[in-house]
Specification:
The complex is a heterotrimer of chains A (283), B (821) and C (190). Chain A is an alpha+beta fold and 283 residues long. Chain A is 33% helix and 27% strand. The two termini of chain C are 28 Å apart. The C terminus of chain C is likely disordered. The chains are: A alpha+beta (283), B alpha+beta (821), C alpha+beta (190).
Chain lengths: 283, 821, 190
């Protein structure tokens, strides 16, 4: 499997990268390459220019910004998993990232690459959604910030214009919350059939608030709003979690494919949501 | 063998001689062969399952810089011949023409329609995109049962049918066995299509030298390949040298004469340059033959006390689009094994071969025998359930007792030796059967989300392929013998040349142990050569767990002949009569004396100098032997599997797995254990993970390793393995073969465990692979009293409602309500 | 064509290469380092695993141009003066390979795993190798080999003598459990 021919550009700044991407309709940004390289090898993509973001140190790293954590788009999964700021303030992200692919892929794959690829079976989009991350985008017109639900538009499609790049995300600190990511795949390497990112804030014996993001339950990552609403103020007990989780597949549009048919995915979403919430809430 | 027990190499867990190069990257895979001037070929492959080629324009590709030649099937014409099938199982078997490159029609996705030869692989692949092909679609034929109906679309129009053959056999009065039976259990099992997925992709390099050709290939069968290349292309056999260098696994997938091997040879001949082709993984998944893919209708008849009376098996076997080397014979290798280790009065078997527009099937680890073992071991557990009997107890009541060997089975084979009681006792002890049953009861009683299931497989298999006479009786196109030559070198070293062709098994190490003992020389003094028709001119290669039993025995016999030659020379040097000279631990002595003595390694120098040889002795200490076994060998064993099923998600996880195998005498227990482990992994993979899935148009959906789920270390359990040793009596070492045992035994053990866990839900089958979704569906639907075991269908177009395991049970006096509780 | 400078198994190379050339093809076809095989096209099998700046990477999913300025270690670069790396030795002594095709990748992934965690449980070993497929061994002996190698390296580390810096004696740079390279705080320079 051999990629098609392309020109290669390695910009030294975000501005240069944006300008390189703007020079051709068919230009493609290369982050860690762990999704793009297989696409190129299968000739499912024919970029005329590949813009390698690998040298952009400014896109790499994690920064504590007070009420939020900034994560550079080119931060590798490996670095996300091992970062102390993320461990302290975004444990869900570290937890989910640990389940992405395998160690070698995590060394090279990046958070920005995963989010921009926007595969609904990927683990990180649903996490970004559940954590209400902001997406920081640079383009020819300057910078813009979009909320997670607005970033993911459709299957493998984001709000990014061809000449824009995702420079990072900003994740609010969820003080007083606890989270869990429950992934269900047939083998260790397989994509999630369904994944659930869940978080709760407990107040005495109650669940004060909850967040639930769903992986692979539609063309984009989804929030299980019905579950979240049903959990507000309920006792932090198995019964109430179970009742709320029964609505986990509401409003979803799961695919039917070789890994699972839609009705099974709906069932899994309910079961896994319950399990993820129980873990998150310590029930 | 005349060697003191403490000096014996046989039976020692010797570390492998093979490893040094493999762990340091000093390897010689076919794709590593880089010759000056090598041209690279890439194939354009059919994107459709069935079509007429109505137009093919290669002119643009031909004009690309760096492109040497672009060729179509028509360009190869008559020269490419037809790929061989060596096993016409019946006289009237349909054997369609199979041009290596399609000429008029394509019949599976991936069939080659053109090729580009270029200076480098990048250029070749780029130029493929410049080729224009017009495909005029023809109907895909995907479902075996539909393919056999009267107005079915045809894979091969000229044949007038999709039915390739019907092959029946029977023994005993089957009607009587079933008519008088108190219990009859009938089931339909599906052996899903599998992709062998050896880690090394196929690769071929062919280098011309005048009118002779050296062809390196990632093959299990260099010797057979050489014969078949000559027969297919008309190039004289003596002009072809085939080399199997380091070969990275085969599992049957490299027991083949492939289109790419033939075409690479023809290209080298045509262009008079070395030509190389290496498949990509997804290309290989589409074009390297697949395995299994059978529908098994099985009925078993028994008395109320569990005594089995008879067995009926009606098989449909998917050939795919063409007959490859042994495609039609694979299901018949299982024909004799459906009765397993059990005594019964009557047995009837019939197999119908069916053409479909899919990749051809052929040998995959176990080849026919895993399917047979699956069916009998699954239905024995079903019968036990029907009778309300412990599944192990039912087996005990029916198996051949150790004092009944040799035993001629109802399948017509004579099992030479075995001790099912001993292997089972050891397995039960290691497994902790009774404690697990108690835990299972407790989990059932408290309605635990996680249920426990115990699965049993008490298997035997036939291997050590094979007595040539018996192969002839089955219309196989070759013999089953194996060849070895042993040469004592002047400096005392030993060269063993074997006709077997290892691709991971460790023949170099094991054969060194054999030669060391039978010649009385140090293990390190033995060099084993193989896999090159110029070095090892005679051989039948490696498959069917035959190498040790047949090829190893040939080494033993050749060593014996060398010793006899050396004895003659020793007698001459010791000035004694030959009959008075004894051989032990590598030295010859006159009976009753210690000194003087003559070592076989010193005698090698004496033979080489030839200064003082006895009358009529030639100046060499070497010998050849060709061994043709009188019978198959019959490894057996007891495998026990405990599975936990999360009833909320349907996920099954193996909690413990015990395998006690009896492979006869173990030459090297380390290698035996490795073979068992790997076999278990593949058998478990069939039970739980792997399936080649096609869509409604006949595209292979699982065409990459991202979709076809070869399990990783995380997905497999730790295995508990042990052995009992009941030597085979049909070869001097007592070996039985071990390459396929683990795969054959494990699949039914796992599925029996899954089904056992789900009994309270009324489930009596889950179709393989037992994915979480299938288990969930089986639970949901069995409770409603319907058919069991649907799930993600083989064809994506089919609905999730598809039912697959139409089970019926007629019960006699024992009562019962049918297939489900 | 882009120009790259890369160090492979201690040797520096300067090359003009096509931008689309995969690192694995660069290693095998340009440098002749065929010890690293290719097993798939989706980065699932891990046969082509090498170390890039000490961390495992699947060389089929990296462009050679991305290796510019980096250091690559392949299985060919582990033994030193004929002395095998403890991981190589452990694979041999535990019969952790049969056909050997996955072995280079398996060994490189093991090195990465042991740099990360020098006292892994069996479960951690299996997880550490989840990106490397083997069709022959059923993994049991591979797990055993990794466990053995870890113990041997731990013992060597606690031994009083300082080991040489040769490849064969390479030992993890940090103690078990600690991440190998703590992330720099902040977003780097801009």
């Amino acid at each position: 499997m051999i990629p098609p021919q392309f020109e290669y550009v390695k910009p030294n700044s975000v501005a240069e990268a944006v300008s390189a991407l703007g020079e051709s309709e068919e230009a493609k940004a290369l982050a860690g390459g762990q999704s793009l390289l297989p696409l190129l090898r299968f000739r499912l993509a024919y970029p005329d220019v590949v813009v390698d973001l690998g040298e952009l140190a400014e896109l790499r790293g994690v920064r504590d910004e007070g009420d939020a954590v900034w994560i550079g788009a080119m931060t590798t999964h490996y670095d996300v998993v091992n970062d102390p700021v993320i461990a302290e303030h975004c444990e869900l992200l570290a937890m989910a990232t640990r389940t992405v692919a395998d160690p070698a892929v995590r060394h090279r794959g990046t958070i920005g690459g995963s989010l921009s690829h926007a595969d609904p079976a990927g683990d990180l989009p649903a996490v970004a959604l559940a954590l209400e991350a902001e997406f920081l985008i640079s383009g020819p017109e300057g910078e813009r910030t979009v909320a997670a639900p607005d970033f993911f538009e459709d299957y493998l499609t984001t709000t990014l214009e061809p000449e824009e790049i995702l420079t990072g995300i900003r994740v609010p600190k969820w003080e007083g919350w606890s989270f869990h990511y429950e992934k269900f795949a047939r083998t260790a390497q397989a994509w999630a059939i369904v994944g659930v990112a869940a978080g709760t804030r407990r107040r005495e014996g109650e669940i004060a608030e909850a967040r639930v993001g769903l992986t692979n339950m539609g063309p984009t990552p989804m929030r299980a709003h019905a579950v979240e609403e049903a959990l507000v103020g309920v006792p932090a007990q198995a019964g109430s979690v179970r009742a709320a989780s029964a609505t986990a597949d509401q409003g979803t549009a799961p695919p039917s494919d070789v890994n699972g048919q839609a009705d099974y995915r709906r069932h899994l979403a309910r079961v896994l949501t319950e399990r993820a919430l129980e873990q998150a809430a310590g029930i | 063998m005349t060697i003191a027990p403490e000096d014996r190499q046989l039976g020692l867990p010797r570390l492998r001689k093979e490893d040094a190069r493999l762990i340091t990257g000093q390897t010689n895979w076919t794709d590593n062969i880089q010759q000056v001037g090598t041209l690279h070929v890439a194939f354009l492959r059919s994107p459709v399952a069935h079509a007429r080629i109505s137009g093919l324009d290669v002119s643009a590709a031909q004009e690309q810089p760096g492109v040497i030649s672009v060729l179509t099937g028509a360009d190869f014409g008559e020269e490419q011949g037809s790929l061989p099938c060596a096993w016409p199982v019946t006289e009237d078997m349909v054997l369609p023409e199979h041009p290596p490159m399609a000429v008029e029609e394509v019949r599976f996705v991936g069939e080659a329609v053109a090729c580009v030869v270029a200076r480098d692989p990048y250029t070749a692949v780029d130029a493929l995109e410049m080729i224009d092909v017009d495909f005029e679609p023809l109907p895909a034929v995907l479902d075996m049962e539909a393919a056999l109906t009267e107005d079915a679309d045809l894979v091969h129009t000229a044949a007038g049918t999709n039915k390739a053959f019907v092959w029946p056999m029977s023994n005993g009065d089957v009607d009587a066995a079933f008519d008088g039976a108190e219990v009859v259990v009938t089931r339909r099992y599906r052996q899903q299509r599998l992709i062998p997925a050896a880690m090394e992709p196929r690769s071929v390099v062919c280098s011309p030298d005048g009118d002779t050709f050296t062809l390196w290939s990632a093959t299990q069968i260099p010797h057979i390949l050489r014969v078949m290349l000559a027969m297919t292309t008309g190039i004289p056999e003596q002009k072809i040298r085939v080399v199997a260098p380091d070969v990275g696994g085969g599992f049957g997938s490299k027991l083949q004469v492939t289109a790419e091997e033939v075409l690479t040879l023809l290209l080298a001949k045509r262009l008079n340059k070395p030509v190389k082709w290496t498949e990509t993984r997804s290309e290989g998944f589409q074009t390297t033959h697949h395995g299994r893919d059978q529908i098994q209708d099985v009925s078993i008849a028994a008395d109320a006390d569990g005594r089995v009376r008879g067995l009926k098996v009606d098989l449909m076997a998917d050939m795919g689009a063409y007959m490859m080397l042994v495609t039609p014979g694979v299901p018949l290798l299982g024909a004799f094994m459906y009765p397993g280790i059990y005594k019964m009065d009557a047995y009837a078997f019939s197999c119908t071969g069916v053409f479909t527009t899919k990749t051809p099937t052929d040998a995959y680890r176990g080849a026919g025998r895993p399917e047979a073992t699956y069916a009998i071991e699954r239905i024995m557990s079903e019968l036990a359930h029907e009778l309300g009997m412990d599944p192990m107890e039912l087996r005990r009541r029916n198996w051949i007792n150790h004092d009944e060997f040799p035993y001629t089975s109802i399948g017509g084979l004579t099992y030479d030796s075995g001790n099912y009681e001993a292997a089972t006792a050891r397995a039960m002890e290691l497994f902790g059967y009774d404690a697990l049953r108690a835990e299972q009861r407790a989990r059932r009683e408290r309605g635990d989300t996680v249920q426990l299931g115990l699965g049993i497989s008490t298997y035997t298999e036939m291997c050590g392929l094979a007595p040539s006479r018996m192969l002839g009786g089955l219309s196989y196109g070759a013999g089953g013998w194996e060849h070895a030559s042993v040469r004592m070198l002047p400096t005392g070293g030993v060269e063993v040349v074997t006709g077997t062709t290892p691709h991971g098994q460790g023949h170099v190490t094991a054969w060194s142990q054999i030669a060391a003992d039978y010649l009385g020389v140090p293990f390190d003094d033995v060099q084993v050569l193989h896999g090159d028709t110029q070095v090892s001119p005679q051989g039948m290669d490696t498959y069917g767990s035959r190498s040790l039993v047949v090829g190893g025995t040939a080494v033993v016999e050749a060593c014996g002949r060398v010793v006899e030659k050396a004895r003659k020379l020793a007698a001459h040097m010791l000035e004694a009569a030959e009959g008075d000279v004894e051989f032990s631990n590598g030295r010859f002595r006159v009976r009753g004396t210690q000194e003087p003595s003559a070592g076989i390694q010193e005698l090698a120098l004496a033979a080489f100098t030839a200064h003082d040889l006895p009358e009529e002795m030639e100046a060499s200490l070497n010998a050849e032997a060709t061994f043709d076994p009188e019978n198959f060998s019959y490894p057996h064993g007891t495998h026990l599997c405990a599975v936990e099923v999360d009833t909320a998600t349907g996920r099954a996880s193996i909690r413990s797995y015990v395998a006690v195998d009896d492979v006869g005498t173990a030459v090297n227990p380390l290698l035996v254990e490795g073979q068992v482990h790997g076999g278990l992994a593949q058998g478990i993979a069939q039970a739980m993970f792997e399936e080649a899935v096609h869509d409604a148009e006949g595209n292979l959906v699982t065409s990459t390793m991202a979709d076809y789920l070869v399990p990783s270390a995380v997905d497999l359990p730790e295995f508990t393995t042990d052995r009992t040793e009941t030597p085979a009596v049909t070869n001097p070492m007592g070996a039985k073969g071990v390459g396929e045992a683990g795969t054959i035994a494990s699949t039914p053990a796992v599925v029996n465990a899954v089904v056992d866990a789900l009994r309270p839900f009324g489930v009596d089958d889950v179709r393989m692979p037992c994915t979480p979704e299938r288990i969930w569906r089986a639970m949901a639907q069995a409770g409603a009293g319907g058919d069991t075991a649907p799930g993600t269908p083989t064809s994506l177009a089919a609905s999730s409602e598809e039912s697959t395991a139409a089970g019926t049970t007629q019960t006699g006096e024992t009562g019962g309500e049918g297939a489900t509780q | 064509m882009p120009h790259i400078r890369v160090t492979v198994d201690g040797v520096r190379y300067d090359d003009e290469i096509e931008a689309r050339r995969l690192l694995t093809h660069y290693l095998r076809d340009t440098l002749g380092k065929v010890g690293t095989p290719i097993g798939c096209d989706t980065s699932n099998c891990g046969a082509c695993t090498v170390l890039m700046d000490g961390m495992s990477a699947k060389s089929c999913s990296v462009l050679a141009v991305q290796a510019d300025g980096h250091e690559i270690t392949t299985v060919e670069g582990l033994a030193s003066n004929g002395t095998w790396h403890p991981v190589q030795r452990a694979f041999h002594e535990n019969h952790a390979l049969q056909c050997g095709y996955c072995t280079p990748g398996m060994i490189m992934a093991t090195l990465d795993l042991l740099q990360e965690n020098l006292d892994p449980s069996d479960e951690e070993i299996r997880e550490g190798l989840e990106g490397n497929l083997c069709r022959c061994t059923g993994y049991s002996n591979i797990v055993k080999a990794v466990r053995t190698a870890a113990a041997e390296i731990r013992a060597a580390e606690s031994a009083p003598t300082v080991m040489t810096a040769s490849g064969a004696e390479e030992v993890p740079r940090q103690a078990a459990g600690e991440p190998r390279r703590p992330m720099a705080k902040g977003g780097g320079t801009s």
